[in-house]
């Protein structure tokens, strides 16, 4: 497959492209009309924010960013040990940056590579339109403003996790004030504080909200993620709070401990995406927060994997974490694969990943003799949903909180056990979404899962540090191949799983980076870049990366 991508010219990216008069018309087009309609409306802009192929698993995002960069850095995906394997691919990082600040999801072909929904730009337009509404019409649209803010806050936190300081509070001035300004870089701590403070406000707003009939109908029609359910929005918001409070908990522990205790001790006020206590048989489609593929989407992820040899099973994941305990997810996540000789296919006898420590030549010569990513679940599945929050992630976060701080509202063991069971059930759910089953695989039985959970390497036993290691490793595994960004963030925060990092002989890129450096547009056109330039290195750590 030839990679295709609509790229904005670097000097025409967002309002950050300061002083480029030739780009002003294009900038104005994006900011007065980001959803490319004659009369943008708040509810349609909200839907457009959700229509985000940086959340849905699609070729472009996974091929260029998740598999090829973030997945490598935490060995969520396999990769060839090339000299520059840890180098940042600047064009792809520019794309990711653009997709937060400018809409790029407006094509009519669902198979196109357009990726991001430009949540910041779209929300700034929503804010302007809301202010222009007559006072008596605002109650009809307020729920869209609140839910849209939640989407923006989640994406802003993810930008911090990748870059550190970002333009945020002053970004989007063109639509807000009709002037092009030079947005400052907000400190990453300030952005996280804004995210957490406003998510708490959103949690309380949705808990008390009663929508009128107009708002109820409009929200149900436009909300294709939670289908207008205020309860599901409440659960999603509080699980996001749990994620980002825990993400910074080794820096701001008192805040994390206090706010998480409030959440866990008050499940009626602060419900969570936790599966309501159901493990083996919980229903991800009804419980989790997922973005489904468009009905006219027919592509799959095979090229995203194979173009960079990421179809190979990851060494540490399969050989160290899963095979020694006969993990029931193995046939759901991997194919044994094999070799073709004289047009005859000879399948490999067992599941096994090739070593991530081999030379590039050895890897290239051996790839067919080892296991690969599963064809049904991942490579040829056109129906994989985008994952915004799962019950398993929430329960792993709860388990960590209970283990570290002894909070009330549950136990670490119960939350961990539930999370692992849900993660297994979720793997089968992903497998079942494919209407073409390339091999017959049944859902692991409760008896099989019970036997798996009793194994010493999985059972919730050992010292507190050992228990935390199990929580973090199993959470990393549960993120799977389409959430490499979350896996990379948690790897940097916890230093789990305890992978052996292959070291390149490159003097510039010997090891994986701890963050992305800023794209060319910022360095060239945003004069505020000077305030962050000194720390714009690949080895500068995000503020929560302190272990």
UniProtKB/TrEMBL annotation:
InterPro entries, per the entry: SusD-like_2, TPR-like_helical_dom_sf
Keyword set includes Ligase: no
Keyword Lipoprotein: yes
Highest taxon of source: Bacteria
Pfam families to which the protein is assigned, alphabetical: SusD-like_2
Keywords: Lipoprotein
PROSITE patterns: PROKAR_LIPOPROTEIN
Protein's UniProt name: SusD/RagB family nutrient-binding outer membrane lipoprotein
Organism: Chitinophaga silvisoli
Origin organism lineage: Bacteria, Pseudomonadati, Bacteroidota, Chitinophagia, Chitinophagales
């Amino acid at each position: 497959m030839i990679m295709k991508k609509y790229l904005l010219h670097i000097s025409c990216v967002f309002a950050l492209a300061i002083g480029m008069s030739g780009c002003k018309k294009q900038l104005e087009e994006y900011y007065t009309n980001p959803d490319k309609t004659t009369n943008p409306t708040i509810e349609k802009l909200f839907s457009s924010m959700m229509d985000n192929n940086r959340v849905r698993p699609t070729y472009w995002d996974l091929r260029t960013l998740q598999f090829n960069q973030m997945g490598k850095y935490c060995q969520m995906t396999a990769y060839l040990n090339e000299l520059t394997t840890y180098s940042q691919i600047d064009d792809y990082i520019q794309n990711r940056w653009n997709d937060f600040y400018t809409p790029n999801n407006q094509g009519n072909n669902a198979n196109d590579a357009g990726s991001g929904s430009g949540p910041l730009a779209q929300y700034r337009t929503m804010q302007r339109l809301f202010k222009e509404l007559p006072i008596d019409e605002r109650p009809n649209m307020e729920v869209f403003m609140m839910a849209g803010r939640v989407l923006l806050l989640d994406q802003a936190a993810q930008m911090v996790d990748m870059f550190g300081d970002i333009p945020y509070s002053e970004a989007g001035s063109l639509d807000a004030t009709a002037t092009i300004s030079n947005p400052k870089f907000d400190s990453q701590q300030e952005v996280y504080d804004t995210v957490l403070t406003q998510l708490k406000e959103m949690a309380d707003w949705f808990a008390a909200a009663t929508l009128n009939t107009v708002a109820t109908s409009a929200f149900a029609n436009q909300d294709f993620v939670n289908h207008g359910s205020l309860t599901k929005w409440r659960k999603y918001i509080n699980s996001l709070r749990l994620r980002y409070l825990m993400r910074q908990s080794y820096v701001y522990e008192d805040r994390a401990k206090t706010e998480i205790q409030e959440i866990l001790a008050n499940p009626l006020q602060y419900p969570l995406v936790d599966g309501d206590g159901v493990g083996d048989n919980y229903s991800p489609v009804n419980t989790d927060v997922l973005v489904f593929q468009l009905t006219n989407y027919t592509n799959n992820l095979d090229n995203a994997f194979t173009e960079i040899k990421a179809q190979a099973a990851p060494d540490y994941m399969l050989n160290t974490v899963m095979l020694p305990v006969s993990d029931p997810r193995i046939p759901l996540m991997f194919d044994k694969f094999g070799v073709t000789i004289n047009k005859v296919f000879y399948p490999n006898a067992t599941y096994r990943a090739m070593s991530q420590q081999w030379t590039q030549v050895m890897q290239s010569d051996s790839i067919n003799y080892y296991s690969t990513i599963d064809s049904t679940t991942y490579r040829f599945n056109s129906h994989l949903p985008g994952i915004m929050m799962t019950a398993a992630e929430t329960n792993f976060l709860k388990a960590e909180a209970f283990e570290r701080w002894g909070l009330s509202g549950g136990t670490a063991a119960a939350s961990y056990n539930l999370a692992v069971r849900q993660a297994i059930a979720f793997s089968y759910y992903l497998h079942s979404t494919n209407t073409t089953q390339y091999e017959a695989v049944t859902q692991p039985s409760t008896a099989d899962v019970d036997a798996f959970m009793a194994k010493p390497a999985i059972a919730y036993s050992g010292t507190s540090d050992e228990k935390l290691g199990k929580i973090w490793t199993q959470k990393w595994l549960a993120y799977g191949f389409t959430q490499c960004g979350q896996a990379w963030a948690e790897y940097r925060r916890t230093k789990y799983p305890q992978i052996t990092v292959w070291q390149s002989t490159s003097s510039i890129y010997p090891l994986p980076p701890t963050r992305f450096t800023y794209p060319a547009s910022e360095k060239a056109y945003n004069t505020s870049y000077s305030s962050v330039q000194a720390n714009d290195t690949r080895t500068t750590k995000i503020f929560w990366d302190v272990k």
